[in-house]
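> run fold Integrase catalytic domain-containing protein
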Amino acid sequence: MAFIDAQRGEFGVEPICTVLRSAGVSVAPSTYYDAKTRPPSARACRDAVLGPALRQLWEDNYCVYGARKLWKAARRAGHDVGRDQVARHMRAAGMVGVRRGKRVKTTKPDLTAGRHPDLVQRQFTAAAPNQLWVSDLTFVPTWAGVAYVCFILDAFSRMIVGWRVASHMRTIMVLDAIEMARWSRGKLLPGLISHSDAGSQFTSIRYGERLAEIGAVPSIGSIGDSFDNALAETVNGYYKAELIYGPARTGPWKTVEDVELATLGWVHWHNTSRLHGYLGDIPPAEFEATFYATKRTDQPLVEIQ
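> ok
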């Protein structure tokens, strides 16, 4: 039908149908006219509403969701839709989810420095917020030089509690990220384990002193083994896939400041909107809010005499 629509102004419907019939495509003029005058089906009417809504949801989430997460997001937004319907719309509209690429090594271990023990042993789980943080560095090439990025993630909720973008990868950038985490989560966090790889920034004396100020204990994985800091590596991976090289990117990164501003928006989305499969497809902020709400209701009431 679309072919006839495109050519009918120049050739007419009947001649086009004759040519199509000779080519083995049997379409009578009456069939074409019936199809054009027939009212749209219920499915077509639903698609006309659902298609733009799904497109908007996909774009609002950095154009990174595949069929499963877009389906979850649509259900959360109030759309009564099945996963197969979402997949069909995505195929028709050319929407695809992102895939993470390979990790690039940024750690520069200080082989002469003393290292704290590995207190995590690849068990990246926690029963409550502020029990285990994981940290790592990555980098982003820009026209003005390399932007280095540090993230601090709470293992309980996958919340990014601190981050920093800088034109260098000295210890001070990690300390700045800790300071952000400190003010967002509390000045004193006794019992907190802060885990990282064996990079020189994380084995420095200043790093250990800053953690001691907030009551935290450092933990460091072995040198050259990415599995010892796998959770932080995962965050770096989807940061690169979703923002730095993601489909919503408008072009090359020009400056470190451009990366910093974009990272600010991505971190806010990551914490408040991004659906995390590990959390049951809800955002970290919602997961923590539910945890604290449940904790309050579980506390026994004290009767005042």
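The longest strand covers residues 132-142.
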